[in-house]
């Protein structure tokens, strides 16, 4: 009996130790996660699970679609309760719509970490997370991203991995030409072998459908849509089509220019802001154009480092400075959008107060003279 | 060996003008499939470039002139053509030129003769990052159905000519030795890493690529070197350093990746 008792104790202790050890291992996982290295898709998925576990009540994950090859497209939602129970707005960010632009998924992970590390201590971030939820998709074109990790010959893949249409032989559609925004009109190819092939029809690609479905049901909620690319060091505002201009072009330009300035200030690397037909090339079917057309006021494409030395093959020792710059730019636009929606309501309060004052003054003036 | 004049004879063949590799069932455009191991076949079209000669007389009749926003794409693309041109003249494994800013830009439509871009730009030198040189450049893109290279000329406040550096001399001495057999692939690698010893070869690939990029430039292109797929040292002839490159060039506008073979030798 003593022996079985001892055995029981031993098993319990080792069981506890095992559980404790596993908890420690799990808890230390994202603390040890290297944000300055490129991670493959299974590492990113594991990181996402870990982030959810480590931030209960703040971070949840949501699968909102499937890729062509059947993989789950998942986002992280960062949401802190509003203390007054006020209605919240949201920010959308997606990375890796083009498979070879590895710095983009690296930035989405960096962004999530930055928000989670600062939302309790940074005054402005604290205020913003009470009013804004964040929807972050670290890798949108998962099939393409996985493909670029196979070996060196696949590293420069750009498109999705859907099969060719009839009478053509090449795989993939350029997801950033596939959205239903002046689809197929400019800056696209109808040749399925082209890297700017726009697909057989608007949102023919499952990845574009996933974004479209999720966002179109939330166009009143989402005030800021940021889609992250490389390279070129630019902040692009709608539209890619040269003959249309967004109704709020002036404020898009103001916020975008401010973002480019903020990004330039971090490490003295030049970033510029403008519409694609001005500073890059005209093209249609982009996700940022679709988002603006769907009613989301602040919609941008970010092109991260570098200018042309390494291009898509940005060295890992540049991940940190590139992400610091991108964060400065994203934060600038998010702050601009936030203050427009949440500080203007305070101003509206001030306006109604002053109206009340004038009405009161006018009334007392009239009463004085009428009664006289 | 004449490094001072920076004359590079670049023998170049465009792989995608070559017959399709036997393993591919049907022809596919570059960038659509993973590029297989590329050998530089001898039956490809051979194009020979030497360093650029300075331009010929311009049409004296000035047609319509339009001021351009120097930050917008038209002026920027023309400035890249100037960048390629400068590197065909002065680029070495240890020195590359680029531009930091376009200050002013305008076009002159020369009618049949083409479209002329006049630029005021600041030229950056990788050897002397702190001082930039103000230059006036002209780029004339010819009109026509087929691709023809733009003609570039440039004059700067101060000369861009430099003496051969000790670094370049050492590099040449070291690698033109009879037993030298440099080789490499995927530079930079997927993670952006370049082995320090391979950096000059990577930079040299960039300079050699500017010959092709200039030749293939028009108002709708913007080329950069994406990656060196392969480098092989060829047998030295007459003490020359001879290298064979397979390079991947990225056109920002069409997003295509072009595979090109380049053979370099100093002359």
TrEMBL record, chain A:
SMART domains to which the protein is assigned, alphabetical: Zn_pept
Q: What's an example GO BP annotation here? A: proteolysis
Names of the cofactor(s): Zn(2+)
* GO cellular component annotations of the record: extracellular space
Enumerate the spans annotated as Peptidase M14 domain: 37-337
Q: Where is the active site?
A: 303 (proton donor/acceptor)
Keyword Protease present in the record's keywords: the answer is yes
Asked whether the keyword Protease is assigned, the reply is yes
Leader sequence segment: 1-18
One example of the protein's molecular function in GO is: metallocarboxypeptidase activity
Q: Which PROSITE patterns match?
A: CARBOXYPEPT_ZN_1 (PS00132), PEPTIDASE_M14 (PS52035), PROKAR_LIPOPROTEIN (PS51257)
Q: Which UniProt keywords apply?
A: Carboxypeptidase, Hydrolase, Metal-binding, Metalloprotease, Protease, Signal, Zinc
Protein family: Belongs to the peptidase M14 family.
This protein is called Carboxypeptidase O
UniProt source species? Astyanax mexicanus (Blind cave fish)
Q: Taxonomic classification, please?
A: Eukaryota, Metazoa, Chordata, Craniata, Vertebrata
UniProtKB/TrEMBL annotation, chain B:
Q: Which GO terms describe its molecular function?
A: metalloendopeptidase inhibitor activity
Q: Which UniProt keywords apply?
A: Protease inhibitor, Repeat, Signal
Q: Which Gene Ontology cellular component terms are annotated?
A: extracellular space
Checking InterPro entries in the record gives: CYSTATIN_LXN (IPR049897), Cystatin_sf (IPR046350), Latexin (IPR009684)
Cleaved signal peptide residues: 1-20
Q: Where is the Cystatin LXN-type domain?
A: 64-164, 183-267
Family, according to the entry, reads as follows: Belongs to the protease inhibitor I47 (latexin) family.
Q: What is this protein called?
A: Latexin
The species this protein belongs to is Astyanax mexicanus
Q: What is the lineage of its organism?
A: Eukaryota, Metazoa, Chordata, Craniata, Vertebrata
């Amino acid at each position: 009996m003593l022996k079985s008792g001892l055995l029981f104790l031993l098993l319990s202790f080792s069981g506890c130790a095992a559980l404790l050890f596993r908890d420690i291992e799990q808890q230390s996982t994202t603390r040890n996660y290297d944000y300055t290295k490129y991670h493959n898709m299974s590492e990113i998925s594991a990181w996402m699970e870990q982030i959810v576990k480590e931030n209960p009540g703040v971070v949840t994950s949501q699968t909102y679609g499937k890729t062509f090859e059947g993989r789950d497209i998942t986002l992280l939602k960062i949401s802190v309760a509003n203390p007054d129970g006020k209605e919240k707005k949201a920010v959308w960010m997606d990375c890796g719509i083009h498979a070879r632009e590895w710095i983009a998924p690296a930035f989405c992970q960096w962004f999530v970490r930055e928000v989670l590390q600062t939302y309790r201590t940074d005054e402005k971030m604290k205020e913003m997370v009470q009013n804004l939820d964040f929807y972050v998709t670290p890798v949108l074109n998962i099939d393409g991203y996985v493909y670029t990790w196979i070996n060196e010959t696949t590293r420069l893949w750009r498109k999705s991995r859907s099969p060719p249409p009839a009478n053509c032989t090449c795989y993939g559609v350029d997801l950033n030409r596939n959205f239903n925004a002046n689809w197929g009109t400019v800056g696209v190819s109808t040749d399925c072998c082209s890297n700017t092939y726009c697909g057989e029809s608007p949102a023919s690609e499952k990845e574009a459908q996933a974004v479209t479905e999720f966002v179109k049901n939330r166009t009143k909620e989402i005030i800021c849509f940021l889609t992250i690319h490389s390279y070129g060091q630019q902040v692009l505002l709608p539209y890619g089509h040269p003959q249309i201009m967004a109704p709020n072009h002036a404020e898009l330009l103001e916020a975008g220019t401010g973002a480019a300035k903020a990004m330039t200030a971090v490490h003295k690397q030049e970033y510029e802001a403008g519409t694609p037909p001005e500073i890059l090339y005209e093209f249609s079917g982009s996700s940022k154009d679709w988002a603006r057309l769907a009613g989301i006021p602040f919609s941008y494409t970010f092109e991260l480092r570098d200018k042309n030395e390494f291009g898509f093959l940005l060295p890992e020792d540049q991940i940190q400075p590139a992400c610091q710059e991108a964060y400065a730019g994203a934060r600038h636009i998010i702050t601009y959008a936030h203050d427009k929606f949440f500080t203007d309501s305070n101003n509206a309060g001030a306006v109604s107060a002053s109206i009340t004052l004038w009405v009161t003054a006018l009334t007392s003036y009239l009463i004085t003279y009428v009664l006289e | 060996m004449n490094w001072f004049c920076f004359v590079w004879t670049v023998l170049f063949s465009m792989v995608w003008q070559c017959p399709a590799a036997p393993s591919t069932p049907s022809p596919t455009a570059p960038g659509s499939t993973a590029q297989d191991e590329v050998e530089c076949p001898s039956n490809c079209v051979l194009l020979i470039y030497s360093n650029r000669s300075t331009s010929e007389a311009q049409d004296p009749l000035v047609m319509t002139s339009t001021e351009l926003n120097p930050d917008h794409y038209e002026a920027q693309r023309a400035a890249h053509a100037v960048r390629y041109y400068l590197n065909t003249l002065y680029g070495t494994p240890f020195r590359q030129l680029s531009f930091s800013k376009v200050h002013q830009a305008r076009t002159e439509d020369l009618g049949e003769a083409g479209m002329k871009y006049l630029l005021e730009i600041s030229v950056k030198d990788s050897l002397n990052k702190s001082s930039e040189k103000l230059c006036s450049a002209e780029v004339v893109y010819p009109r026509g159905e087929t691709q023809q290279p733009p003609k570039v000329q440039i004059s700067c406040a101060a000369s861009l000519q430099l003496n051969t550096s000790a670094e370049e001399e050492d590099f040449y001495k070291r690698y033109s030795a009879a037993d030298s057999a440099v080789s490499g692939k995927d530079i930079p690698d997927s993670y952006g890493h370049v082995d320090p010893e391979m950096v000059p070869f990577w930079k040299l690939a960039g300079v050699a690529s500017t010959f092709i990029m200039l030749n293939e430039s028009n108002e709708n292109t913007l080329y950069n070197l994406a990656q060196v797929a392969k480098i092989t040292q060829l047998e030295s002839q007459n003490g020359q350093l001879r290298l064979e490159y397979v390079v991947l060039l990225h056109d920002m506008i069409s997003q295509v990746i072009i595979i090109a073979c380049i053979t370099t030798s100093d002359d």
